[in-house]
Amino acid sequence: QVLWSEAVTQEAGCVWFPNSAYKTAQAINDFRTEDLPLMIFANWRGFSGGQRDMFDEVLKYGSLIVDAFVAYEQPVFVFIPPFAEIRGGAWVVLDASINASVMEMYASSGSARGGVLEANGAASVKYRSKDLLSTMHRLDGTLRSLDAKLSESASDDEKVAIKQSIKEREQSLLPVYEQIAVQFCELHDTPGRMKAVGVIEKSVEWKNARTFFFWRLRRKLAEFDFRKKIQEASTIGRGIQTLTAIGASAMMKEWFIGTPGMSESMWDDDKAVLSWMAQSNNVLEGKLLDLNKQSVVQEVFQAMTAGGNTAVIGTAGIVEGIGQAYQTMSMDDKEKFKNMLKDAIDL
C-alpha cells in the first residue's frame, strides 16, 4: 500500500533556492529562444546558503542564470524598483558586465539599493568597535576634554575617575555611532553612488519608468538591428577584421557624432538617436556600402602583401577570380571595369 502525504516547505522571499534559481535560468532561456528582449525587476538578497541547498547544487543553478545571460542577444534591462535591493550572489549573476553588449542596469531614484554586502554587514566588517571608539575620541567634545584631563592628571585616583567617565561616555555614544556607521555604509549602496562607480547606467524616477523604458527599448532594438548590419558588412571573405557588437555600436556612435547638429551628449537621448536613424537612413546605407567596400579592399590587400607563398598564391587567386568574373560581364560592364582598373593602377 502506497501512502501519500503533503510536505510543506517554508522558503524565504527574495532569495534564490535551487528550484527557483533553475526556474529563473529556464525562463531566461525561453525568452532567448523566442528572440525577445528581457526586462527584469530585481529584488533579491542572494542565494540560500544552507547545507541542504548546497547539497542540492544551488551554485550550479545560479551559474545557469549567468550562462543564460551570456548567450542572450536581445536587449536586457535589469531595473531595481523602489524599496528593492540586490545583494550577495544576486548581484553577481545580474551584473551588466556579464554581457555588456546587451545588458544594462538601472535603479529607481532614492529608495533602491544595491551592493554585495548589506549596510549592517558592511558596517560590522569595515567599522568595528575599535574604529567607532577612535571616531568618538576624534569628534566628541566631551571625550576630547576627558582625554586632555587624563593626560594632565597626576594622581592615580583622579585617573581612575576620568577613565570611568570616559568608559561611561563611550557606552552612551556607542549605539548612536553604530547607527551612523550603518547609515554611512548605506550611502555607498544608493543609486547615486552606483552611477558614480559605473555599475548602473542611470537612476530612473519610478513615475517616469514606463516612458523611459519604452523609448529605451525602441532605440535598442533599432540599434541592435543596425549594428548587426555593420558586423555583417565588416566580415567579407575571411573576415580579417571582425567587429564585436560593442565595436559596431562604437562605430555607429562615431557616425552619429559626425552628423552635423549632433553631439556626444545627445547619444544618450533615445528619441534623438531614433530620429537620426530615420532621417539619415540613406546616408547610413551608404556608409554600410563603404564599410563593405573597405572590408573587400583590406581582404585583397592583405592577400597580396602577405609575403612568401601566401602572397604569390593570393595574387594568382585574385587575378584568376577577376578573369573568371570578367568573362561573365556584358560589354558595357567590361568597359566600365577596364576604366576602373586603369584609374586604380595608373595604366
Automatic annotation (TrEMBL):
GO molecular function: acetyl-CoA carboxylase activity
Top-level taxonomic group: Eukaryota
GO biological process assignments: fatty acid biosynthetic process
Gene3D superfamilies hit by this protein: 2-enoyl-CoA Hydratase, Chain A, domain 1
UniProt cross-references to InterPro entries, sorted A to Z: ACCA (IPR049076), AcCoA_carboxyl_beta (IPR034733), ClpP/crotonase-like_dom_sf (IPR029045), COA_CT_C (IPR011763)
SUPFAM superfamilies the record matches: ClpP/crotonase (SSF52096)
Domain called CoA carboxyltransferase C-terminal: residue spans: 1-232
Record-given protein name: CoA carboxyltransferase C-terminal domain-containing protein
Organism: Helicotheca tamesis
Source lineage: Eukaryota, Sar, Stramenopiles, Ochrophyta, Bacillariophyta
